[in-house]
Amino acid sequence: MKVGCVKEIKKQEYRVGMTPDNVKSYVNAGHTVYIEAGAGEGSGFEDSEYSAAGALLCADPGEVWEKSDMVIKVKEPLPEEYGYFREGLVLYTYFHLAADEKLTDALLDAGVKSVAYETLIEKNGSIPLLAPMSQIAGRLSIQEGAKYLEKPFGGRGVLLSGVPGTPKAKVVILGAGGVGTNACRTAVGMGADVTILDVNLERLAYLDDIFGARIQTLYSTDAAIEKEVSDADLVVGAVLIPGKSAPKLMKKEYLKNMKPGSVIVDVAVDQGGCCETTKATYHDDPVYTVDGVVHYCVGNMPGAVPRTSTIALTNATLKYGLQIADKGLEDACRENDVIYSAVNTYGGKLTCRNVADSFGREYTDIRTLV
User: Fold this and answer.
1) Measuring CA to CA, which residue among 128, 142, 76, 67 is closest to residue 103?
2) Which residue out of 31, 96, 283, 295 is catalytically annotated?
3) What is the pTM of this model?
4) How many alpha carbons lie under 13 Å from residue 125 in its C-beta half-sphere?
5) Is 96 a catalytic residue?
6) Which of 75, 173, 271, 352 has the smallest set of CB atoms within 10 Å of its CB?
7) Which residues lie across from 266 on neighbouring strands?
């Protein structure tokens, strides 16, 4: 197969879909790899490294799109890239379609075979291509939240750990999945007072076993959330329903009872956010204030640490990407039915139920098409 990787054009996105080591794996498997010149520079990978691994460098992204049977990216395509879409193209990246109806329509109209990292679900229920970014975003959420609690950045002027004789900052985490667990681990490690809420009692029991008396676990209800955030210094939105818009757990009305200068970090912003007051921001202007509460809602948080993020992500995506390249998408699905779950659009049909439900669109089971 002819496999391509282009430079990300989303504002301040420094990650790249393939490392030189990935290229070597594809080339050794007999595939041709096209890389846009400069694609890896933001993550610290030079063109010379890609060439040494066997990639063919292209000065123009259009050349990569045109020559490739499968294009591997990190972030969802932007409108400037829709013109490269064509029938039969396999596009392997994060899409988060439930938050982007225009992109969904563009993929459907062009007949693109979109394979979404965020909806690939293994047989044990894990989401392996989302997990590494969840780990990074969860840990970053506390790091960034701690920074924006500082007075010069608009926060309350609170140190997460406190010092002897002063109270610790209270961190409230909404969601106990991958993001929430990693946020919890980092917040506990920094010495904060941590409360985590979820509707999955098994997951809460798991965290209780891990962290014991160092955290408070609570069953998530509207009343519990409203009560806990009113006393919080930092709130982390860590809710995910794969392929579906994030539920709005944080109501705007809750903000008026929160402490002035408290901080909300909404990691769910890629799926529309779990706060009613969420709007996507970028790394160069990451925060805004609503009712005295600082909001950090960067849509590509792991992009702030692109070297770590790129290596972690591509370690996970390589396995499935090679299966698609070796067999073609259809045979790869037949041989590993886990890949079916990642196909969001195929032949002009919407094949992810949660995305279809988010837009009230017709859903088609991918198994009836492949």
Assistant:
1) 76
2) 96
3) 0.88
4) 3
5) yes
6) 75
7) 237
Evaluate whether 171 touches 193 at the Cβ level (below 8 Å): yes
Nearest-CA neighbor of 39 among 24, 49, 29?
Answer: 49
CA–CA dist 271, 241 (Å, integer): 9
DSSP bridge pairs for 70: 3, 90
pLDDT in tens, 6-35: 999 999 999 999 999 999 999 999 999 999
Q: Choose among 186, 169, 129, 173: nearest CA to 267.
A: 173
Q: Which two tokens stand for residue 33?
A: 């790899």
Q: If you count them, how many residues does the chain have?
A: 370
- CA-to-CA distance for 223 and 227, rounded, in angstroms? 6
Structure token pair of residue 235:
């709130």
Q: Say if CB 264 and CB 276 are below 8 A apart.
A: no
Q: Write the CA distances from 114 to 7, 91, 120, 304, 338, integer angstroms.
A: 18, 5, 12, 26, 15
Residue 250 scores a pLDDT above 90: yes
pLDDT (tens digit per residue) in 181-221? 999 999 999 999 999 999 999 999 999 999 999 999 999 99
